[in-house]
Amino acid sequence: MADQLSRETHTGRREDLLVIFAALQTAVRKIAHLLSRAGIEDLFGEAEAPAGSADRDKAKKLDIVANEVMKVALEGTGRVSLMASEEDDEPVSVHSACGREGGSYVAVFDPLDGSRNIDASIPTGTIFGLYAAATSGEPTDALQPGTRQIAAAYSLYSSATMLVVSWGSGVHGFTLDTTVGEFVLSHPKIQIPQRGQIYSVNDARYFDWPEGLRRYIDDIRQGKGQNPKQYSARYICSLVADFHRTLLYGGVAMNPRSHLRLIYEANPLGFLAEQAGGRASDGKRRILDIQPEKLHQRLPLFLGSPDDIAELESYEDVQQINNPGYTV
C-alpha cells in the first residue's frame, strides 16, 4: 500500500498519509481479529451503555470496541487533530496534532458499519474519510462537504478482509494476507462498469416507496428501462458489502429513506464511487456537493454505475421522505 500511495500523492502530503493509512491498516487488522473471535469472547449483542443522541442507533458491543480501536490508532499518528465517529455524540479533538509542523487532518468514520448483522456473522465494514483541517481542531472542521475530502477508504470483513482506498487518483483494493499479516494489492485501478444489471435495496418496503421509485424498479426488473436486460435484486443489508459488490459488478445500491449518514457513510463512499468512475446521489443532487449542517445528518443514498444513477434520477420522485414507522 505504501508504494501505491507514494506514486499517487504529492511529496508534501505523502508522509502524513503514509502514517495515517498505516494506522488505519493496523486498526482494520485488529477489528478483523475481534470479529473472528466475537462469539468466543462474548462480543455479540447490544452494549450496556445507552446510545446517547437520538440521531444515532443503539450500539452493539462490537461497535464500541471498534470505535475505540479506530480512535487509539488514529490518535497515535500525531497527524489527526479531530476525529468524528458515528459512535460519538460530538467530535473528539486530538491536541497532540495541534500546532505540529506539517499538516493536520480530520478523520471521520463509521467504525463498524452493518452492526445489525454482526450477531449473524454477515459481512460488515469500516468506512473512513479524511480531510485537511481548516482550524486547529474546532468541531466545525467535521462539517466539510465531501468535495474537500483528500482520501477515503472502506474495509470489508467477509470471506476475506479487504481495504479499498482512494487518495484522489483512482481506487485500489488491498486484501489482507493472513499468512504475513499485510495488505496486498489485489484489485488495482478499480473501475465501476458504466452500467450494471443488479439493484440493491430492501424492496420489502416497495409499497411504502414514492411512485417514481416504484416505476424505476418495475421497469428495470422487467427489462423496460434504458437497459433492455432484466435486473436482479441482491441485498445484504450491510452498506459496505452492498456497495463493494456494486463497485465491482455495476448497478445501483440504495437506501431511499433519510437513514444513512452524510458525513460517515455517504461522503466517503461517494468519494470512492466517483474515483472509480461512478456516481453518488441523494436522488436529486450530487452527494459530495452537500454542505453538512449537523454531525449525524441523515439522507437518502444512491450509489452506483453512472448510467444507472442518471436513469434513476430521471424518475424524479425516488426519495422516501415519509417513514411509515419501521426502524429496520
From TrEMBL:
Domain of life: Eukaryota
Entry keywords, A to Z: Carbohydrate metabolism, Hydrolase
CDD domains reported in the protein's UniProt record: FBPase
Segments forming domain Fructose-1-6-bisphosphatase class I N-terminal: 13-188
Listed PANTHER family: FRUCTOSE-1,6-BISPHOSPHATASE-RELATED, FRUCTOSE-BISPHOSPHATASE
Family: Belongs to the FBPase class 1 family.
Name of this protein: fructose-bisphosphatase
Lineage of the organism: Eukaryota, Viridiplantae, Chlorophyta, core chlorophytes, Trebouxiophyceae
